[in-house]
Each structure stands twice: as C-alpha cells, then as structure tokens.
UniProtKB/TrEMBL annotation:
It is a multi-pass membrane protein. One of its GO terms (cellular component) is plasma membrane. It is found in: Cell membrane. This is Type II secretion system F family protein. Residues 190-217 form a coiled coil. The chain crosses the membrane at residues 63-87, 218-242, 248-268. Residues 113-232 form the Type II secretion system protein GspF domain.
Amino acid sequence: MGVLFTAWPPGGSGRELRRARLMLAGGGSLVPPAPWPPALVGEWGARLRRWARARKEWACLPLGGAVGLLGGSVLPLLAALVAVPLVRRWLAARGEQRERELREAAVIELCGTVAGELRAGRQPGQALAGVPAGDLGPQWTAVSAAARFGGDVPEALRAVAARPGAEGLHGVAACWRVAVDGGAGLAAGLERVAAALSAERDQREELRSQLAGARSTAVMLALLPVLALLMGSALGAAPLRVLLHTPAGLGCLLVGGLLEAAGIAWTGRIVRAAAGERGRAGGSGAPGPAEGKAP
C-alpha cells in the first residue's frame, strides 16, 4: 500500500498528490475554511468607515461625552451637540477650498496640454476634445461635445468657468474666440493664460506660508485653556468639577468661552484682512487671466 501510494498517480502534479494523501490518510478536509471576519461583517465595517469619513463632525459627540463623564455633567455633551453644525460648516468650507484648488490646477494643466497638442500639429477641436474631464466635473462633457461636433466652444467654456476655481476658463474662451475669429495663435494664448494662473497660485501659496505663523499662534492660544485644565487635573485640583458644578465655575466657564470665541474670531479677521490686502497689492502687478485674450 505504501508503494502504491508513493507511486500513484504517475506523472501527476503536486496538487493531485496532496489531495490523494489527504483522502487516503484522512488528514483533513478539502473544503477551505470560512473567511474571518465574515463577508457581512466586513461590508458593514466598510460602510461604517465610509460614513465616519463623510461625517467627521460627529466626532464631537464622543469627545463631549468623555469630558462629561470625567466631569460628571451633561453640559459638555450639550456643547458638543452645538459644535456639530459649526464643525460641519468648517469642514465644508475646507472641502470647497480643496475642490477650488483642484479645479484651478486642472485648468492650468488643461492649458498646457492643449497648447502642447496644438504645437504638435493637432487641430484645436481635436486637442480640446481629447482632454479628460478630471477635476473639472461632468460639465466638461459639454465642452468636449462642442469641440468635437463644431458647437459653441467659448460658451461651453464659460459655463464651466462659473464653478469656483475654474475662472481661468474665461481666458481660455477668450483665446479660443480670438483664435477662431482673428486667426491668432491659440497655443501662445493658452500658454500665457497658464503662466498667469500659475503666477497667481504661487503668490497665494507664498501668502499662505507667510500667514502660517499667525494661524499657528492663534491655535496655540485657543488650546491654552485645555492645557490649563489638564495641568489642574494632574495636580489634583479637579477643575472640571469646579467649572461644571459650582456657580462661580459656571460663570467663569461662560465668560471664558465667550472670550475664547471672540479671540478666535478677532484673530481670524486679522488674518483675512492681511490676506486681502496682500492679495490686492500683489494682484495689481501680477498678470491676470484676462491677458490671455490677446496672445
């Protein structure tokens, strides 16, 4: 039997040999074990992670609940409930700013790509129709259709330029109109539009880096009360119990919260005013997208 087992099957593969050994020796089951965790648990976990990424503002509730448990009061949880819409607005503003920057970068890349295709010998309609939508959104399909089938390309470009961050497409539309009506060089005009948009973006990035120190200082000042509470708790003074369970503590908490909010708003106003003044001062000398109208 041992000779038969080792000799059979002749010339068989290693998988067949292992299967035969398992069948004859009873060394285990051929059915693979069920995956762990089950597929249903993994699916619900993925949904929960997607929901948590899409609803980051609800993280205020467990944080407020933890502080409420430490202080033995429901006030932190109520404050967390009030903070949820404020945090949602802040996150929405950050998301819109990120999308605006992505659209601006897409417009700059579009100008460079189309200019390169034109200098390589392609026709304007073919070069514009071959550009993928990317971060410009589904409205770009109308521009591709207009370029492919001879429609009103400048009007389609202006429709896409109405979205925040895509304003540079107004310059592209003007260049297209001049190139079609007057026979001017479209590639040179698009390159000038791309250069103007890049210079404006670089100026904004430089201004943001210069204001980063002021923003970090404001964040540190806003976190000082939290550090004070942690130090008081480490020293055994129980500051949360004093703030949340005594009339004097509640009064200090109310006044301190109002002063904290006023300080953050005032600092943000100073930063925005400085950014606006620097932007206007720099914009007077920097080339604008409109200069691409006459390449």
